């Protein structure tokens, strides 16, 4: 019953809320963010591979008796599901217009595919053809991997002077910066060039380990190297 | 004739501002024994992690003109070092927060120390 209730549309949800029909702890997906459910609600396991892993270690029976949050609309067990693409779409999204964001990203993927297929057919030898990545999602993964910074500069105050101190960076923050830099580089374009076109070029450049974003990463690393004398100011 | 005001304002021998005279008598303001707990103030200072690995990586970067592809070994060692450090710190924080005592642990947090002092109170 509960699982059905979670999947109700927003309208029904608000109607139910108004009628005080739901128990107090059940929230609608209208409320975004991790706080809309109490702590004891488990995160949903919606991928078949992860469920198989849980079955192997006999954890699924434990999970089955505890309340579970409903998965998001984009969290599916489809073969096309890719958490990185989801994340990217959410970064592209403005004012909650997810459908538009998804269309833009998919159009960019189409552009990448077109450019790569053109290169594939122009390539003369079989070896050169084998080297060209045709899957745009692979290109995205490669691009983001190449854009991830290894270090960050933290402002730390010592003796009245703020030093920019190089420090290691967490996985999560480096992913955030990579996506943000890619989008920054994309939005820095002529008005007549549209987002999908520019984003496709940026992705291909970054996947090739060249371009604005990779240069930005290297500039950060250079600055970290120049400030390495301050590294001992970081007492974690 | 005006008298010098210094003569009147200088602390007399009964004034609290008089200069101290040796030997200074000892007054016991607090009982002369240690508290049964320790405060957590000293726990704040920690070492900067992975300095060695960072220095090695910087040296490689400088040699390779900041091309990451040529320094894969250094980069992976730096990242694994930071990952290890984070995991260790997280474990220590959790155990310290709960005050769980790990046998053989050398660096105890103040909560762990308090736990130990509570279970084996010092004799007065």
UniProtKB/TrEMBL annotation, chain A:
PANTHER family: RIBOSOMAL PROTEIN S7. GO terms for cellular component: ribonucleoprotein complex; ribosome. Keywords: Ribonucleoprotein, Ribosomal protein. GO terms for biological process: translation. One of its GO terms (molecular function) is structural constituent of ribosome. It comes from Bicyclus anynana. InterPro entries: Ribosomal_uS7, Ribosomal_uS7_CS, Ribosomal_uS7_dom, Ribosomal_uS7_dom_sf. This is 28S ribosomal protein S7, mitochondrial. Belongs to the universal ribosomal protein uS7 family. Residues 77-228 form the Small ribosomal subunit protein uS7 domain. SUPFAM superfamilies: Ribosomal protein S7.
From TrEMBL, chain B:
GO terms for molecular function: RNA binding. It comes from the Eukaryota. One of its GO terms (biological process) is mitochondrial translation. InterPro entries: Cys_alpha_HP_mot_SF, Ribosomal_mS37_met. GO terms for cellular component: mitochondrial ribosome; nucleoplasm. Residues 1-22 are annotated as: Disordered. This is Uncharacterized protein LOC112046760. It comes from Bicyclus anynana (Squinting bush brown butterfly). The gene is LOC112046760.
């Amino acid at each position: 019953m509960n699982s059905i209730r979670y999947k109700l549309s927003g309208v029904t949800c608000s109607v139910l809320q108004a009628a005080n029909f739901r128990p107090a702890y059940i929230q609608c997906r209208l409320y975004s963010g991790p706080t809309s459910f109490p702590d004891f609600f488990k995160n949903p396991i919606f991928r078949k591979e992860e469920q198989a892993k849980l079955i192997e270690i006999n954890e699924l029976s434990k999970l089955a008796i505890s309340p579970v949050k409903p998965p998001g609309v984009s969290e599916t067990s489809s073969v096309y599901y890719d958490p990185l693409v989801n994340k990217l779409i959410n970064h592209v999204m403005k004012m909650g217009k997810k459908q538009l964001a998804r269309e833009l990203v998919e159009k960019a993927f189409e552009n990448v595919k077109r450019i790569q297929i053109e290169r594939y057919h122009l390539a003369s030898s079989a070896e050169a053809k084998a080297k060209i990545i045709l899957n745009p999602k692979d290109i995205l993964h490669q691009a983001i991997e190449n854009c991830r910074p290894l270090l960050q500069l933290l402002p730390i105050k010592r003796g009245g002077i703020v030093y920019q101190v190089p420090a290691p960076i967490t996985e999560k923050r480096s992913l955030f910066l990579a996506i943000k830099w890619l989008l920054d580089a994309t939005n820095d374009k002529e008005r007549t060039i549209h987002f999908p076109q520019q984003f496709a070029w940026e992705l291909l450049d970054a996947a090739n380990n060249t371009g604005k974003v990779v240069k930005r990463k290297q500039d950060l690393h250079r600055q970290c190297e120049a400030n390495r004398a301050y590294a001992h100011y970081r007492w974690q | 004739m005006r008298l010098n005001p210094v003569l009147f304002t200088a602390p007399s021998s009964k004034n609290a501002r008089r200069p101290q005279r040796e030997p200074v008598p000892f007054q016991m303001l607090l009982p002369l024994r240690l508290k049964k707990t320790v405060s957590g103030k000293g726990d704040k200072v920690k070492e900067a992690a992975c300095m060695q690995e960072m220095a090695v990586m910087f040296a490689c970067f400088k040699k390779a003109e900041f091309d990451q592809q040529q320094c894969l070994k250094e980069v992976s060692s730096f990242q694994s070092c930071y990952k290890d450090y984070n995991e260790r710190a997280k474990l220590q924080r959790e155990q310290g927060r709960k005050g769980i005592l790990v046998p053989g642990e050398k660096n105890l947090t103040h909560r762990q120390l308090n736990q130990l002092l509570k279970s084996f109170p010092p004799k007065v």
